[in-house]
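Hi all, a correction to my earlier message: I attached the wrong file for Aspartate aminotransferase. Here's the right sequence:
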Amino acid sequence: MLSSPESALSAKNVPQAPEDPLYGLVNAYLSDKSDKKIDLSVGVYRDDNAKPWVLPAVQKAEQLYQCDPDLDHEYLPIAGLPEFINAAQRLIVGADSPAIRESRICSFQTISGTGAVHLGGALLSRFLPLPTPAIYLSSPTWAIHDQIFNNVGLAIKEYPYFSSKTKMMDFDGMISVLGSAPPGSIILLHACAHNPTGVDPTHDQWGKIAKIIRANRLFPFFDCAYQGFASGSLAQDNFAIRYFIDHGFELAIAQSFSKNMGLYGQRVGAFHYIACPGSGAQEIVERVASQLAILQRSEISTPPLFGAKIASIVLNDKEICADWEKDLRTMSGRINTMRESLKQGLDQLQTPGQWGHITSQIGMFSFTGLSKSQVLSLREKWHVYMVETGRISMAGLNSGNVRYFAEAVDDVVRAAK
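and the right structure:
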């Protein structure tokens, strides 16, 4: 009889990893039996009845696809569905962009925005001139950014972004750090609806950021998860990207369709690389595309079909695309209404503190300014679930619970005085 072997992946060699804090919070919410409970943690859109909303434009696209006599389940090319990639490209940089006109852009379908950030990080980690100093992330930023860039071997540094005192952008701090970043550093920028703060640079501030990046020879990498969802305007929400391209920057873009099409589980995204203008731009793009193909092939082989087909129909059918823009205005409009209702509720309760940032911030999230102890008190006493930084998903509020949430905030703020 053979003796029982010892596992190579033993408890000694494999430490227990902590549970993802966000999904741990979701599990705690699901286990809560209170009929008053509110989930303000995960960034997913909910309608005014707290239900998931399948966009009408997406429903139309699904019906068309299901009725397509040529429907099949074949593999896509390594780069993805061509009609989706081309439409996503036009959406993010503008149909009249010089990057498209001059063939200075290459694009790959990815596993949503997360996959796009990862693919871009892997490309830059491997092929930027060595040593690559670091990638600079805003403080705070989307929690997964750190994990992704650590996994591809990029050193991480931070630039100031949010002022806890003013509840607005720390623009001077940001410019100061970017101004001292070593040449060749990568700067991760949120194109719109900054996650988690909901605070975006003005158009004038974007111009100043661009000047610093050019002067210091830094590499801009845009993460765009909320185009059209933030303001309700697709053109307004890609302003920064168009500005950088129009001014001749080399850059990378991670693009997601999870929020703006509600295709969360379909994982639809794209990565785009844009070369500087010049005689060698097309050759650079071809070389970058060849390396992206190897990276993509070695990780996922080819991207998934269904979600890309749906997004492609929405983007390429003029009537459905117009319906989609109406859906975007519906979502962004409801969230803005919740911002106004929450601030009004806090004002009526005369809650201590200043709450103007609730309505001046934009997009799905709001950085409330609540402390960790106040957040925990909201969870224990009021059954309100939000991350410990004080960030809330505005989509979790509705006409039935926004007053309750305002009262809960008022209570924990007064208790802390």
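Sorry for the mix-up. The domain at 75-316 is CATH 3.40.640.10 (Aspartate Aminotransferase; domain 2).
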